[in-house]
Specification:
The complex is a heterodimer.
Chain A (H helix, E strand, L loop, with lengths): L8 E5 L2 E5 L15 E5 L9 E6 L2 E6 L8 E6 L7 E6 L11 E5 L4 E3 L4 E6 L8 H4 E4 L19 E2 L5 E5 L2 H4 L4 H5 L9 E6 L15 E8 L12 E3 L9 E4 L6 H4 L3 E5 L2 E2 L2 E6 L4 E6 L6 E8 L30 E8 L1
Parallel strand pairs in A: 9-15
Antiparallel strand pairs in A: 1-2, 2-5, 3-6, 4-5, 6-7, 8-10, 10-13, 11-14, 12-13, 14-15, 16-17, 17-21, 18-19, 18-22, 20-21, 22-23
Chain B lengths: L16 E4 L15 E3 L9 E3 L4 E6 L4 E6 L13 E2 L2 H9 L6 E8 L6 E7 L6 E7 L5 E3 L5 E7 L18 E9 L2 E8 L6 E6 L9 E5 L13 E9 L2 E8 L3 E6 L8 E9 L6 E9 L2 E8 L3 E6 L18 E2 L2 E4 L5 E6 L4 E6 L13 E6 L2
Parallel strand pairs in B: 1-14, 15-19
Antiparallel strand pairs in B: 1-15, 2-11, 3-4, 4-5, 5-11, 6-27, 7-8, 8-9, 9-10, 12-13, 13-14, 16-17, 17-18, 18-19, 19-23, 20-21, 21-22, 22-24, 25-26, 26-27
Classes of the chains: A mainly beta, B mainly beta.
Chain lengths: ~350, ~375
């Protein structure tokens, strides 16, 4: 089945392990894994998964997954009737150049309502998940991290976008809901008049495991709770002149949920949905829509999804916390509302 | 979970109401009952539950889908084995060749027939992490469930994209699957959006074949007094009370609610009943109902409260909590199980044992502690 040609040795080339100096012919009865095994990691661990082949009389092992940075590999070759050969290999070096930073955190306002519901953190590069509890902190005005029973954010609940560049964190809803014991005993996550600092550590690893370029700090002040659902009747719409391509501007009395502003308002005109780009300004109180083509005169409307939320999770026609037990059972709500305006 | 589940009843789906929506726009990627052999398209491997005959349902939050995989693992063992694997994250890491801190364990379940353990995990912590499903047999041996050529079917939870809409990879909106259970031929899937607060519970007939209208479920949460908000279901299990099939669903901060399955019909509105409130500032993680010495219990693992043993005898006699309560704890009584700590997941094995996953390397963010799985006698 095999013949010893010279002293066998093991190489790692191009992500595959090879036994050289030993002529492989037919596989042994118990398979090639009985003579050649690769281990990744130390201690009592199972063998690395992969496939064996014989290429030009050389025994080759191709790992099922690529060779990874920071892993120590141990290859063991036990030729039948011969002496075992063991060789250690290091995976490729870990990358060290930092490329990620926090681009923005929404809401961008300096004042958060005491019933603030969610934070959205935008990173410049894909990040590692499972790190927020270690690397994201809310400090009180004395610089003390709010943890344990004082924790402000739901620990361990990281909601990422598919690119892992936007993280959604939720404030503890148990402290937001009125009349809940923890709401009355501990108070809401954000107290009116108090000062807080959001801190994101530079050590948060990106998807490659490399820390960020910089950490991030943002001070906030606690404001009054937002209990009134957004009402499009209170919005101020500034319609541009026909023939121009200047943005349509919609102003809200309070800051709104930034990600939802990207997709829950659209513009409909005499020829149907108007194509254009959305820009959100002024601490998410201003929604600007620049049309792809110049405005034409006519009757228009904003079509607004009633799921559009303010910072506290109140959405159109419905506050975040309300007695819904009896009165809404049969209520049928429409999914959108419209706000008319005219282009002249 | 991903991208756009249609939730029905937007206006009323506030905090402790949930939406049961089998979206009419759900796209079915499988044929009818048949499973297709081939490569399983899985972007991530999250919550799991077993269906009939060795069918493993895997929630793919990043792919916006649920996949049914035939594990071909439907042989009962000669005798029940006690499984005890310490440092399973390091062992999985060795199997797939990556540093142990790059393994994220997402869920664990037990095949009800073979009693083999299945662990869903990710090889890596970033967006390109490979999904893994690892089988642990009665001897503690690990093997990777092949996704390259398995009989499978999938159902998309993503609404058909509008023309000109960004593709899935560019769309930042996701629906994280928080739990799944197979009840009366239907796969029930609970989810949580990373944008809007409204949440969804879907019921998908299996074999995957049809789409239908959804039902809205409203739930009263006692300790919130007169105020209610729409909160996502964290975990739920099928449960039979007086011969009637329910699901017991647990929410953040932490009401336990019973919902009659018979009423979860397409288009219906159902009022779930709260039967216990475990208190605030906590997230329920997993539930396992069982019977011991003639008494009924439900074991509940929690993020802040440890493992609780709910005394479920005569659960049908507890009146629904319909009046505002001014205390955190109400309803069906429970004890804390002090012998179990740092539990992240529970999975039913049989009438005497439960599988317990402990440790904190599983993506819950605390300092990494080795992840262990062990068979433990039901308390």
């Amino acid at each position: 089945m095999t013949a010893v040609a010279q002293s066998p040795s093991i190489q790692l080339e191009g992500g595959t392990f090879k036994v050289t100096g030993w002529k492989a012919t037919a596989p042994p009865t118990k398979g090639w894994s009985s003579v050649f095994t690769i281990y990744a990691g130390s201690g009592d661990v199972p063998a690395l998964l992969g496939k064996y082949s014989v290429e030009n009389n050389t025994l080759v092992f191709r790992p099922q997954f690529p060779i990874a940075a920071g892993v120590k590999y141990r290859a063991v070759f036990q030729p039948p009737g011969g002496t075992a050969v063991t060789k250690a290999f290091d995976g490729p070096p870990r990358e060290t150049n930092p490329i990620a930073r926090v681009v923005n955190v929404y809401p961008t306002a300096d004042v958060l309502p005491s019933n603030q519901l969610r934070l959205y953190v935008y990173f410049s590069a894909p990040m590692s998940r499972g790190e927020a509890a270690r690397h994201m902190h809310i400090l009180d005005e004395n610089g003390k991290a709010l943890e344990g029973t004082e924790a402000v954010l739901l620990r361990g609940e990281e909601l990422w976008d598919p690119a892992f560049q936007r993280l959604t964190m939720t404030f503890d809803p148990g402290r937001i809901k009125r009349e809940l014991t923890s709401n009355r005993m501990i108070g809401p996550p954000i107290a009116e008049g108090k000062r807080y600092t959001l801190v994101i550590d530079r050590e948060w690893p990106d998807a490659r495991g490399v820390p960020m370029i910089d950490g991030y700090r943002k001070p906030y002040r606690g404001g009054p709770a937002l209990r009134t659902p957004p009402d499009p009747k209170q919005w101020h719409v500034t319609a541009p002149k026909s023939g121009s391509s200047v943005p349509l501007v919609v102003e809200f009395p309070v800051s709104m949920n930034y990600p939802l502003l990207q997709r829950m308002i659209r513009v409909s005109g005499p020829e149907g949905t108007v194509a254009g780009t959305i820009d959100v300004q002024r601490q998410e109180t201003q929604w600007r829509f620049t049309p792809k083509s110049a405005w034409k005169a006519g009757n228009y409307k904003l079509i607004v999804d009633t799921g559009l939320e303010d910072l506290a999770g109140n959405h159109i026609g419905q506050p975040f916390d309300v007695d819904t037990f009896e009165r809404v059972t049969e209520k049928i709500t429409t999914a959108t509302v419209s706000v008319p305006f005219i282009i002249q | 979970m991903r991208r756009t589940w249609t939730t029905i009843g937007i206006g009323i789906a506030m905090c402790l109401s949930i939406v049961l929506a089998l979206s009419a726009t759900a796209t079915l990627q499988s044929g009818a009952a048949q499973l297709t052999a081939g490569k399983v398209q899985l972007t991530s491997a999250g919550p799991m539950t077993f269906g009939p005959a060795g069918i493993l349902f895997v929630g793919d939050s990043l792919g916006g889908a649920v996949v049914a995989i035939d594990t071909e693992d439907s042989k009962a063992p000669a005798s029940a084995a006690k499984i005890n694997v310490e440092g399973i994250d390091a062992k999985i890491a060795a199997l797939v060749g990556i540093a142990a801190d790059q393994i994220v364990v997402n869920d664990v379940t037990v095949n009800p027939v073979s009693k083999n353990v299945y662990v869903s995990a990710a090889r890596g912590r970033g967006p390109d992490a490979a999904p893994l499903i690892v089988k642990v047999d009665g001897t503690g041996k690990l093997s990777l469930v092949s996704l390259d050529n398995a009989r499978h079917a999938s159902v998309s939870l993503v609404d058909a994209p509008a023309a000109g809409a960004p593709n899935a990879r560019q769309n930042p909106r996701t629906q994280t699957i928080t739990g799944m259970a197979f009840v009366n031929g239907n796969l029930m899937v609970a989810g949580l959006s990373n944008e809007e607060w409204s949440s969804a519970l879907r019921s998908i007939p299996y074999p995957f074949k049809t789409a239908s209208q959804g039902a809205t479920v409203q739930i009263w949460h006692s300790s919130h007094g007169q105020y209610e908000t729409a909160s996502p279901i964290r975990t739920f299990v099928p449960y039979t009370i007086s011969g009637q099939q329910y699901v017991l669903a647990a929410y953040t901060c932490t009401p336990l609610v019973k919902i009659p399955v018979s009423q979860l019909t397409p288009g219906a509105k159902v009022k779930g009943q709260e039967i216990a409130d475990l208190g605030a500032g906590n997230q329920p993680l997993d539930m396992v109902p069982y019977t011991k010495d003639g008494h009924n219990y439900i074991l509940i693992a929690n993020s802040a409260f440890g493992v609780l043993k709910l005394k479920a005898d005569n659960i049908e006699t507890y009146p629904a909590i319909v009046e505002p309560q001014r205390t955190d704890v109400a309803g069906v009584p429970f004890d804390k199980v002090t012998t179990l700590s740092n539990v992240q997941h529970l999975a039913a094995i049989d009438g005497s044992n439960v599988l317990v996953l402990t440790g904190s390397g599983g993506g819950r963010g605390a300092a990494a502690v080795p992840i262990n799985i062990a068979t433990v006698a039901l308390p």
